[in-house]
Each structure stands twice: as C-alpha cells, then as structure tokens.
C-alpha cells in the first residue's frame, strides 16, 4: 500500500486522533451518565409529586363521601362521583364506582378500559387503596383504587363493598418529561462541541514532547549527536526528555571518543607507513644486490637471502597499501581523469604484469571513458591478481557498456575465475580490510588491503563493485567449481560527476 514504510504496521488513526477520541469518549460517558441520573431523578420527582397529590386528594375525598348503603340508584351515585371528580388534584379526574354488579362513573361511560384487573385485586385486598401508572394508546394515566370502609371497634375497618376508582391523564407530566429529554439532548451536543477544544489542547500538550523526541531522534540518526530536547515540567514526559538527553550525552561522548581513537589509529598507520618507506627503500636496494649475488653463495645462505628479499618485497607492498588506504581515510585521495580507451587500458595493465598469457579477455574496441588511468590500473590489477591467486587458471576479463534509467552510460567490467568461489558467509565481508575469506589461512601473498583499496578507487570514480559466485555450469556435479565474479560499474564520464 502506498504511503506505508516497510516494516511499519498500518494504524487506522494517528496518536493525535486517538487522544482526541479518547477525551471525547470520556466526555460522552460522563455527560451521558450525568444526564441519565439527572433525568431519572427529575422524572421521578415530577411523577411522584403528581402521584402523591392525586392519591392523597382522592383518599381524602373518598373518606368524606356519604353514600347510603345498599346503593340502588346509579344516577345518584354518578352525581356523587361527579362532585368528587370536580375536586380532583392536580388535574381533573374521571371517577368510577363498582358495587356488586352496579357500575357508575362521572363520565359518559360507566366502565373504564384503563383500570386493570391487577389494580382491582390490590384495591379489594388493601383497605387504604392502591394505584398504578398505565399507558393506553400512547397516553399515560394514573389509576387509583380506593375502597369505602367503616370503622369497627378500635382501629378496625370493614369494607362496605363500594370501590371507587379515579383515572387521571398525565399529559402535562409527560410533556415535562419530554422537555427534560430534549434539554438533556440539546445540552449534551454543545457540551461535546465545547469539550473538543480542551481535547485538542490536551492532545497538543501531550504530543509536543513526542514530536520533539521524534525530531531529536531523526537528528541524531543523521549524525547530530549534540541534539537535546527542552525539558518542561516534572511529569512523565519531562522524565522521558531528561532520559533522552542523558542518553544522547553518553552517545555523544562515546562517539567523540571513538572518532578520536579512529583518527589516532589512522594517523598512526599513516605516520608509521610514511616512516617505514625510507628504511624500506634502503632494504630493497640491499636485497636486490644480495639477490644478484645469491648464486655465488652457499645454498643455505642463498635460500635465506631470497627469503629476506621476498619478505621485504611483501612488507613494501603492505606499506604502500597502508599509505594508500590512509589517503582515502583522510579524504586526501584525488581523481585525475582523462579520456582513454578502456580496452587498451586493461590490455596495458595485463601486459605490464605479464598476465597476458594467463587471462582470457573480451575487450571490444572503441569504448571511450573518462577515468583516472593510475587508479583504474590499480582496480584491474588487484582484481585480476586476486583471481589468479585464488581462482587459478581460467581467469576472464570482460568489458561492456550499459545504459542507466537516467540515460547515462556505464562502463561495466567483469573479472571471473573458475576457482572454488567465495563462501556465502564471506561475501558480505569480502571488501573489509584484512578480512581473511579462509579462517585457516593466517598468511597470504597480498597485504589484505587490495580489495578494500579497489572498492575505494571505484567509489572515487562514482561507481560500484559487487562480488558474487557464478552459476554452476555442471548441475549434476555438486563439487563443480563455480568461480567468483567481480563486477565493476563506473560512469563513462566519471570525471564530470561528484566523487
């Protein structure tokens, strides 16, 4: 997917968005809980007030009525019920009466569909009456059942058999409850909008140190080890900033010490190499004379002289290579380019080293390139010499060109041998200084710096060098030699590009 870096899991929201959403979620939960509790208490208060008023008033009216028993005149009973209904509180009632099979009311219908059988059972069994809240066809009602009684003895009562019911619509109370719901809803939405501002401010205050830490980490990653983060406050983020600064200080001190140690080592190698050149020049002159006279010496002495001469030559090569690598380390190496025929330059290198008969070449004529002849000669000599030492016969040097995506041309040179190849674990280190591809080989005929110097010279030309093993030509023979292949790619106009 575009926009994602490799190795980084995709996240649906950034930290800023998650912080704001978490803050708003807390605000929603708090506002919702508060609104719910407030609404419930206000609703219960509204309904309880109306309910208590109605029940108390109805009980009082029932206790004050005087109805002769047994009741036989429904019209007279209805008149009594209408009188009670007119005194209803807090709203007008419709009063119903049941006495045996007799039914009467203060309204037009003698019976009510709102009065439930459950209320009738409770009312008959409880002398002080009972009540229910009922919703019928979407309309809320309060229904109250109250039996008429007469006192018997001290504290005793008996039911007369006449039961009165009051039915009161609670439209006003429902309107008040609906208004509470609307107020809670209308108050919550602006509250959440207002809560967004402190959420953004809180997210900003939390993310500021995180952004500073990210910028500081990137700065240190680019090599600026003196980067520090301003410490604000005394919270956990301030502790994180202080810890980062302390760690950065330790890293800076360690890097400075390593750089000083590396500089001392480079200077030491350069100074020692430079100082060794003068006595080595004298030693080489002496060994040349001794080599000439070795034939006149006894065999043991002659062998010792030739050994000293060979080892002195190796030491001279090592000193020259150390001086060369120290120039690269000191950024003192320069590129002096000239337009040359690449095939002729390679052929001249092979001819000067007397390798013409040992190396097969594929060098098409007419390939012109801007190169530093001396440094390119070192590249060719080191690669071919390395192939002859470790690959034996069958060394091939190929030359060609290819175009890059930007349209510029590349000079491509391959040096291949038919030796045992390079072990896979050695490939990543093949250009390291003094690296031994064979652990058991403690000595070599070279200085151990040849491939490192080769790589530096190729880089100085603005090119690249790669080492690999050639594919097997004999698939049926697991022991068949693959051979190593070194590929050098240098821009055809190396002198015009930054090194």
UniProtKB/TrEMBL annotation:
<keyword id="KW-0597">Phosphoprotein</keyword>
<dbReference type="Pfam" id="PF02518">
    <property type="entry name" value="HATPase_c"/>
</dbReference>
<keyword id="KW-1133">Transmembrane helix</keyword>
<keyword id="KW-0067">ATP-binding</keyword>
<keyword id="KW-0808">Transferase</keyword>
<feature type="transmembrane region" description="Helical">
    <location>
        <begin position="20"/>
        <end position="39"/>
    </location>
</feature>
<dbReference type="InterPro" id="IPR005467">
    <property type="entry name" value="His_kinase_dom"/>
</dbReference>
<dbReference type="InterPro" id="IPR004358">
    <property type="entry name" value="Sig_transdc_His_kin-like_C"/>
</dbReference>
<dbReference type="InterPro" id="IPR050351">
    <property type="entry name" value="BphY/WalK/GraS-like"/>
</dbReference>
<keyword id="KW-0418">Kinase</keyword>
<feature type="transmembrane region" description="Helical">
    <location>
        <begin position="188"/>
        <end position="207"/>
    </location>
</feature>
<keyword id="KW-0812">Transmembrane</keyword>
<dbReference type="InterPro" id="IPR003660">
    <property type="entry name" value="HAMP_dom"/>
</dbReference>
<keyword id="KW-0547">Nucleotide-binding</keyword>
<dbReference type="InterPro" id="IPR003594">
    <property type="entry name" value="HATPase_dom"/>
</dbReference>
<feature type="domain" description="HAMP">
    <location>
        <begin position="204"/>
        <end position="256"/>
    </location>
</feature>
<feature type="domain" description="Histidine kinase">
    <location>
        <begin position="271"/>
        <end position="494"/>
    </location>
</feature>
<dbReference type="InterPro" id="IPR036097">
    <property type="entry name" value="HisK_dim/P_sf"/>
</dbReference>
<keyword id="KW-0472">Membrane</keyword>
<dbReference type="Pfam" id="PF00672">
    <property type="entry name" value="HAMP"/>
</dbReference>
<keyword id="KW-0902">Two-component regulatory system</keyword>
<dbReference type="GO" id="GO:0016301">
    <property type="term" value="F:kinase activity"/>
</dbReference>
<dbReference type="InterPro" id="IPR036890">
    <property type="entry name" value="HATPase_C_sf"/>
</dbReference>
<dbReference type="Pfam" id="PF00512">
    <property type="entry name" value="HisKA"/>
</dbReference>
<dbReference type="InterPro" id="IPR003661">
    <property type="entry name" value="HisK_dim/P_dom"/>
</dbReference>
<protein>
    <recommendedName>
        <fullName>Sensor-like histidine kinase SenX3</fullName>
        <ecNumber>2.7.13.3</ecNumber>
    </recommendedName>
</protein>
<feature type="transmembrane region" description="Helical">
    <location>
        <begin position="149"/>
        <end position="168"/>
    </location>
</feature>
